[in-house]
Design a protein that fits this description.
Length: 245
């Protein structure tokens, strides 16, 4: 199927949809200048997951882990939402029931004004107490942070980024909301390599429940979707949005 036919086909599905769920990954923020994790220039080419994105790594060397997060926070703080974020924000008001599930921790969907965002992997702008003193997570927008590692304001112990690391369980409420959202007419997967579970299984679950599933990614990777559009998110979404009028 040509790119144009694919775009037409998705636009026509969306025209008759009322329940739309979009799952995004790092690729949607690529046009904002935020590095993705995988691929030729991906972060995991230069850094090792086990040294930076696990609780074990943090326990071993919290300063190094924090330096990496602080560096990413600085990049993100200078970035702006791109056309893809803006279109999805407008769709969150267009459709009767719209849910955006994102694996991204950058907060760009929220900055674009998207309603009903489920942050699957937490937020890089939130911190929590490493020793779980009882304080709930808190927001801190300062980049760079004045002190590494930052401290818990209640107990004075170390703070950690309130993101989901490899090997950690997702928040139960987040999982419950995501499972409810895959009950939809159209499930669109944008800018993710679809290798990290459980996020990578959401489109298949939506398909099982009867949704039309589609992917937008220059290098499509989601398994078993009805339609794969091999294009950059900011370009494909712009064309689809123009067709929706
Ligand atoms: P990845 O870096 O694995 O995948 C990014 C995807 O975006 C790739 O498939 C690219 O082809 C695609 N891409 C690149 N530019 C694009 C563009 N302009 N438009 C659309 N797609 C584009 O990122 P994720 O799938 O989000 O987890 O990674 C999943 C998780 O792995 C992350 O949430 C993070 C990471 O390790 C944790 O930190 C727990």
């Amino acid at each position: 199927m040509s790119l144009e036919t694919g775009i037409h086909s998705l636009a026509s599905r969306l025209r008759s949809a009322t329940r739309v769920t979009v799952l995004t990954g790092a690729g949607i923020s690529a046009a904002s200048g935020i590095p993705t994790f995988r691929g030729p220039d991906g972060l995991w080419k230069s850094f090792r997951v086990e040294e930076l994105a696990t609780a074990q790594a943090f326990a071993r060397d919290p300063r190094t882990v924090w330096e990496w997060y602080d560096w990413r926070r600085q990049i993100i703080s200078r970035a702006l939402p791109n056309r893809a974020h803006e279109i999805l924000a407008s769709w969150s008001r267009r459709f009767a029931r719209f849910t955006l599930i994102t694996q991204n921790v950058d907060g760009l969907h929220e900055r674009a004004g998207t309603a009903n965002v489920i942050r699957f992997h937490g937020s890089i702008w939130e911190l929590s107490c490493w020793s779980r003193c009882g304080r709930s997570s808190w927001r801190d927008d300062e980049a760079p942070l004045p002190q590494l590692p930052p401290r818990c304001p209640d107990c004075g112990g170390m703070a950690r980024p309130a993101v989901v690391w490899f090997g950690e369980r997702l928040d139960l409420d987040v999982t419950r909301r995501a499972m409810a959202a895959v009950e939809c007419d159209v499930c669109l997967v944008v800018g993710t390599s679809s290798v990290v579970y459980p996020a990578a299984g959401l489109a298949a679950e939506a398909a099982r429940r009867g949704a039309f599933t589609a992917e937008i990614n220059p290098e499509p990777g989601a398994r078993g979707v009805d339609l794969a559009i091999a294009a950059r998110a900011e370009k494909a979404l712009d064309e689809i949005d123009r067709m929706l009028g």
